[in-house]
Amino acid sequence: MKIGVPKEIKILENRVSMTPAGVERLVQAGHELLVEAGAGFGSRLEDEAFAAAGARLVDDVEEVWGEAEMILKVKEPLAEEWPRMRAGQTLFTYLHLAADRELTEAVVSSGIHGFAYETLTVDGHLPLLTPMSEVAGRMSIQAGAKYLESHHGGVGVLLGGVPGVRRGQVVVLGGGVVGTNAARMAAGMGADVTILDVNLERLRYLDEILPANCRTVYSTPMAVREAIRDADLVIGAVLIPGAAAPRLVRREDLAIMRQGAVIVDVAVDQGGCIETCHPTTHAEPTYEIDGVVHYCVANMPGAVPRTSTFALTHATLPWTLRLADLGPVRAVLEDEHLPSAANTFAGQLTCGAVAAAFDMDWRPSREVAAEL
Questions:
Q1: What mean pLDDT do residues 265-285 have?
Q2: Residue 152 catalytic?
Q3: DSSP state of 154
């Protein structure tokens, strides 16, 4: 199969969807790799490394999309990329369709087979979302600590405090991979951490593994309001696979928060779990509403692209190989797990969670593939 690796064009997105080591594995498996020249520069991966691994370097992005039977990306296709998608082609990337109806309609109408990293499910886990969730969870505390500084509009609190001065108060909404990593990082910096979730078994597990300066709380609207009232930093870390994130903090709730408190909504690429959040970029990462600083960058791991690119490729490569070996139709019909990644197939929406977000019709991917 001809596999294309275009350069990411989202603002300050420096990740690339495949490393040279991954390219070598795919070439050894009999596939042809077309890599856009410069695609790896942001991750400090030179063209020569891709060429040495067996890729064919292509200067024209239109040629990459035009020749490739499968396109590997990191982020969802932007509007200027939509015309490049074509019926029968396979796209493997983070799609995050539930956050954007226009994108969903564009991907469906193109007829491309859209496989999403973030919905591929194995034994209840999301193996292709996990590495970027780990990065984003850890980065959320770094970003929050930075924007708590007064010259960034924050309240001027040091998360770890100092002897005789109270520690920063961090609230983490959601005890999944993002939330766990955020809580661990905040605790490591010396903050007092509260992590909320609705899954009691998960809370018991977190209570066992997290440090003593972390406490677990069962999440209810009242518990969320009580927690954020005294928070210096609030991390939005709620995920429902493939679906829009639930809104846990409402606009009116900002009135009870500290002036200069910071919100980091890691769930923003799925619509956000804070009502006042909307996507921002690394170029302009924050804005302020009611005295509360909002950091809502939709591609946080793009700021640490070398770490993120290697972590992503390590997770996606086995699935990329499987998808390329089988092709999209056989992958959906024969593989146990790849159907969960198929969000669109042959011009039809095939993800129920996305359909529910926009009240759209959908069909199971296996049902659609069986007709091809």
A1: 92
A2: no
A3: S
